[in-house]
């Protein structure tokens, strides 16, 4: 893992994404048509999981993968861009025979079951600073709450 945020080359990013996919596919059940892995992180708060979509159209939660979480955390840290921050969440979709697509969320408030505290948002800005014009309004509000001690 990189100690300083950022600095991950495109090749290293691709390798990390491949590692996420391998971690998920190692534990997948039979009869899947699509697998979605989500990872969300703000400061010290993180969540995510795997949903398996079956060939018959049904969907079921399939737990999570510590390895996929670890690779995603490292990817997020390595993808930091000075002044612009890093992404808050990703959705990694796998379809047979192992093709994948990834959506990164850099600006929208991630949907957490248990919301991060204002201090988590402040920690996020300390670790992954953004220029004022790159801070979404919702994040500005959370930082103000942290400054007020809420």
Features of the shown structure:
150 residues; alpha+beta; Murine Class I Major Histocompatibility Complex, H2-DB, Chain A, domain 1; five-stranded antiparallel sheet; 4 helices
Characterise this structure.
By secondary structure, the protein is α+β, with helices and mostly antiparallel strands. It has one domain (10-147): BH3703-like domains (Murine Class I Major Histocompatibility Complex, H2-DB, Chain A, domain 1, 2-Layer Sandwich). Helix content is 33%, strand content 25%. It is built from 4 helices and 5 strands. It has helices spanning 10-25, 66-78, 118-127, 137-147; strands at 32-42, 45-54, 59-61, 89-95, 99-105. A 5-stranded antiparallel β-sheet has the order 3-2-1-4-5. Helix 3 (118-127) crosses helix 4. The longest helix has 16 residues, at 10-25. The N and C termini lie far apart (33 Å).
Quick summary of this structure?
With 150 residues, the chain is α+β, with helices and mostly antiparallel strands. 33% of the residues lie in helices and 25% in strands. The chain has a single domain, classed as Murine Class I Major Histocompatibility Complex, H2-DB, Chain A, domain 1, CATH 3.30.500.
As a percent range, the share of helical residues equals: 25-40%
The main sheet orders its strands as 3-2-1-4-5
Q: What's the average pLDDT?
A: 93
Number of strands: 5
| Biggest β-sheet strands, sense, barrel | 5 strands, antiparallel
Q: Could you say what the CATH topology is called?
A: Murine Class I Major Histocompatibility Complex, H2-DB, Chain A, domain 1
Flag low-confidence runs.
Answer: none
Structural category? alpha+beta
**Rg over C-alpha atoms, rounded to the nearest angstrom:** 16 Å
Shape-level CATH architecture: 2-Layer Sandwich
Distance between the termini: 33 Å
InterPro entries: YezG-like_sf
């Amino acid at each position: 893992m990189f100690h300083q945020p950022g600095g991950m080359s495109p090749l290293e990013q691709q390798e990390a994404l491949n590692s996420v996919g391998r971690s998920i596919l190692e534990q997948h059940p039979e009869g899947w048509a699509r697998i979605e892995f989500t990872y969300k992180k703000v400061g010290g708060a993180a969540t995510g999981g795997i949903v398996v979509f079956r060939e018959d159209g049904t969907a079921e939660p399939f737990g999570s993968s510590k390895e996929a979480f670890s690779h995603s955390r490292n990817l997020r840290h390595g993808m930091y861009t000075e002044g612009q921050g890093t992404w808050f969440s990703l959705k990694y979709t796998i379809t047979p025979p192992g093709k994948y697509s990834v959506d990164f969320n850099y600006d929208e408030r991630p949907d957490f079951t248990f919301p991060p505290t204002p201090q988590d948002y402040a920690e996020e800005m300390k670790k992954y600073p953004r220029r004022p014009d790159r801070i979404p309004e919702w994040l500005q509000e959370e930082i103000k709450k942290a400054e007020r001690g809420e």
